[in-house]
Structure formats: structure tokens, C-alpha cells
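hey so i finaly got around to running the thing on Xanthine dehydrogenase accessory factor from Streptomyces phaeofaciens. pasting the sequence first so u can double check i didnt mess up the copy paste, my clipboard has been acting weird all day
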Amino acid sequence: MLDLALQLGDWLAEGREAAVATVVSVGGSAPRGPGATLAVDGKGAVIGSVSGGCVEASVYDLCAQALETGGSVLERFGYSDEDAFAVGLTCGGVLDVLVTPLTADGPVGALLRSALDTAARGGAVALVRVVRGPDALLGSALLVHADGSHEGGLGGHPELDRTAVEQALAALDAGRTATVEVSQDGSHCPGGLTLLVETRVPPPRMIVFGAVDFAAALVRAGKFLGYQVTVCDARPVFTTPERFPEADEVVVDWPHRYLRGTPTDGRTVVCVLTHDAKFDVPLLEVALRLPVAFVGAMGSRRTHADRDRRLREIGLDDHELARLRSPIGLDLGGRTPEETALSIVAEIVASRRGGTGLPLTGSVRPIHHRHTA
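ok and heres what it spat out for the C-alpha cells, dont ask me to read them lol
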């Protein structure tokens, strides 16, 4: 639901009723993951998506029914061998979709407004809902803030609320949306209740070191993928907002000093484009010892070999050096800054999602597969 928080907030502010369909679990190959949302208002307007289009019409009908009945429903959509035109996922996957009516004066509506207020202040928030279990609990919601405070509740069960808060804080820390199985008293027990934990967190950071021509293209690619992008270089003549107008931040500082002092987390991506030892070595010494998601450095294989030697000389071990992606990027054969940026973000996505970087043609791996980075 939180992926449509801004639009839904506008609907609620206007007093419009809506029904919200949310993907709560996925099996096999499916185009969207848990948390993907489609919403329909009382006049039939629709926003969002729960699939690549193969089940949208049926989900739309379920939302219309929910607006009439006022009740929540959990529906499963899967592939139909018997009828190629039947409602289903022709890619062979299975989606479980929870449809819930949403009104401006209802409890979920109040929680969503609170989530919007938090997001507008740049804060992190998680929405926990019962998506499988007794009808009395289905759709009940709990809103959890980054400091552990919470609003709402899951059917008046304190132990269940405590477990939900713990799961929400873990999901916020990782910036992910996931489902978890618990029993009604809150203990972990597969086969009991299923909770969907949706998060809304500030975008992950991409920090690009080196105010070079490739950096401008990488900034654009990073913004396209939803990163908050910083460009940093020690040379003020090159490091200007005019050269990088799409960057969220342009910083003139020694790279290693800036990285040591700036906030990073397990979603942060570090791209080193300077390929100059006096910048690279002290910077990578810091980067490879931080718990960030990705560290890559540009340069030829000869540059990489020299860089590896220098990093070993200052004390980095095999485990730390194994985290370095160098030369950065996938082998796409590109040469222009835009093609190079594409190869870099392709490797970042593959690393984040567990992809191989190989063509899908001839591959036997699932196209959509689960991965924990």
C-alpha cells in the first residue's frame, strides 16, 4: 500500500473512498513482488499495478466488489493450462492478492495519513497488516516508526503487536517489504497468521567519486533507479552543480575524508571513477571496511592489479578485497559515458537482485527469482 501512499493520501484528503489490492505473496515467476499495489476509487479511477497486466482486470473487479460489500478478501491468481484465456499468470507464477476497502475515516486511512506525514518529514515508517488468518483479523494494521513507537493494532493481541513491531524494525533496517508467519499470540509459528510488512524509507544513496564525464551519465542512471545521488571530488574546478545538475548533492572534499564522515548503510552504493591512486587507495581502504551494499572502481585491468597491490600493502585482507567490483560494470561492450553508466548500474542491479548478468536467452534460471543481498 505504501508504494501508492501519496496518491492514496490525496484521495483520502478529498474524501474519496477506495479499495486497495496488495500483492502479499508470490510463487514461481511473477512480474511484481510483495507490496505491489493497485487501487480503485468509487468512481472507477485506478492507480498502480499488481502484475504485468495479466490479472489487472480481475483485481479491478474485486476492488469494485470490496467497495460495495465493505469487506476484505484474499484471492489467489495462477496459471491456467485448461484455458489460455482464463484469468491467470501466463508466465507460470502465482500471486496472492489482498483486497481491502479504504475509507477516509477508517482505521487504515488514519494510519496511512500518519505514514504520509512521516514520509513528508523524510522519516522511515512501516505498515504491518494481517494478510492471512481469521476473518476478524484480516486487514487489521499496525504502523511502526523508526524509533519503535507504533499506532493501531492487530486485533487487540499485545504479543502479536510486539512481534509485529520487531519484524517492522528489522524490515526498516533493511529497507525491504516481506511477509512473516506468526501465531496469534505472536510467536513464530508457520501455519498461523501471515503478516505483510511494508516499508517506506528514504531512498538508498549512490555516492559517485570522481567529477569526470562518466559521472554525469552515472548520476542520471542512478536517479532513474531511485537513488539519492552524491558526486564528490577534491577538485573544485570540476566539482560544480552546473556540471552535475541532476545530482542531489555535489561535494568538494577529499573522497576518503568525505566517505568516513557521511552517513551510509547496507543499501549504499559506492562508485569510484577517479582511477587515480592518490584518491582511490585511501578511499577504497575506507569503503571496503564499511557495511555498504556495493563498492566498485573504474580502471583497466592493469590499474586494478596496481590498485590491488597497494591496498594489500596498507593491510586489506582477501575477504575485504573480495568485496571490490573492479573493473566496475558488466561486459556490454560499451564505450560512451552513457553505455558505461548502463554497464555499471546493470552490475549494481545484478548484485542487489542476485542476477548473473548473462542473457536470458538460453538460461534455465527463473526470470523472476528471490534473492537476499
